[in-house]
Amino acid sequence: MDKKTPTLYIVIPCYNEQEVLPITAPMFKEKIISLREKGEISSRSRVMFVDDGSRDKTWEIISEFAKTEPQVFCGIRQSRNRGHQNAVLAGLFEAMPLCDITISIDCDGQDDINAIDEMVSKYKDGCEIVYGVRSERKTDSVFKRSTAQAFYKLMNAMGAEVIYNHADYRLISSMALKELFEFNEVNLFLRGMVPLVGFKSDKVYYARAKRLAGESHYPFKKMLALAINGITSLSVKPLRLITVFGIIVSLLSFLGVLWVITTRLLGNTVEGWASMTAIICFVSGVQLMSLGVIGEYVGKCYMESKRRPRFIISERTNKARENEDN
């Protein structure tokens, strides 16, 4: 491993990105060529696109880039859509034996690619992991900004260790990737898994820009699903909260029983269904909610026990191994 001129692979997950790829691909090309010319990275460095089973012309565009400029671009394609996290992992593991460092970044142009320079610099200073952290979200809508901030606060409150305002823009060395490879979870949440790997790490701050083209593939519904997956994959705190809540409800119920017995003995009972209905609805709601949370964990165990592959690569463009011989 050469820390002076490491081989870098920029891993870029893509899903239905035919509109934005022609705009951002030249930006990534310019960045990697610039770093080569400065002697910051080796000539074997590449931009690797990962097509996550797109239904548009994304793969055709990636293939054309790799065909016309094989010294810069390469790509892999998943056999079907498996989700953003699986696509990132597929690219990282494909690149792991070919490079010294990887940097994962989305292809929409919102993450500042100039932060890559500082990431590489921090790697040379001894960091094995460098997190890209958004310093501001001025370009986001009020709803997007508030839900994103709530997402990170909820994750930390539920016991999932995540870096605030960090998505999946990060540098990981091949040494750290080898350890990440030992994590065998099927339910992936890389934002929480990577900090568990350890090693020396640092942060790089950047301003988030607007998406250059196309539509966002992470609406509130997907963000909520990601939060639930992250919490239940990395923390058992919800189960403990259910236990605490159950104890509290049991104590209140016991006090209610004492109150009923006391009023009965004193002859002050009043016939009525409203209070009884309210109590039944409350307890039933608590039970159903608790079963739902427990069911989420049971479902996770069920999926993990199957040991299904986390990604399946169906196609590759020019492979970087072949490029090294050129």
Please give the CATH class of the largest domain: Alpha Beta
What CATH architecture of the largest domain do you see? Alpha-Beta Complex
What strand order characterises the main sheet?
7-5-6-4-1-2-3-8
Number of helices: 11
Query: What proportion strand?
Result: 15-25%
The overall pLDDT average reads 79
Rg measurement, Å:
25 Å
Class from helix and strand fractions: alpha/beta
Structural account:
The chain is an alpha/beta fold. The protein folds into two domains: 8-219 and 309-324, Alpha-Beta Complex (Spore Coat Polysaccharide Biosynthesis Protein SpsA, Chain A); 237-306. It is 50% helix and 15% strand. It contains eleven helices and eight strands. The chain has helices spanning 21-37, 58-68, 84-95, 115-124, 142-157, 174-180, 190-197, 220-234, 237-265, 274-306, 320-324, and strands spanning 8-14, 46-51, 73-78, 101-104, 129-136, 166-173, 201-207, 313-316. It has an eight-stranded mixed beta sheet with strand order 7-5-6-4-1-2-3-8, sandwiched between helices.
Write a concise synopsis of the structure shown.
With 326 residues, the protein is of the alpha/beta class. It has helices spanning 21-37, 58-68, 84-95, 115-124, 142-157, 174-180, 190-197, 220-234, 237-265, 274-306, 320-324; strands at residues 8-14, 46-51, 73-78, 101-104, 129-136, 166-173, 201-207, 313-316. 33% of the residues are buried.
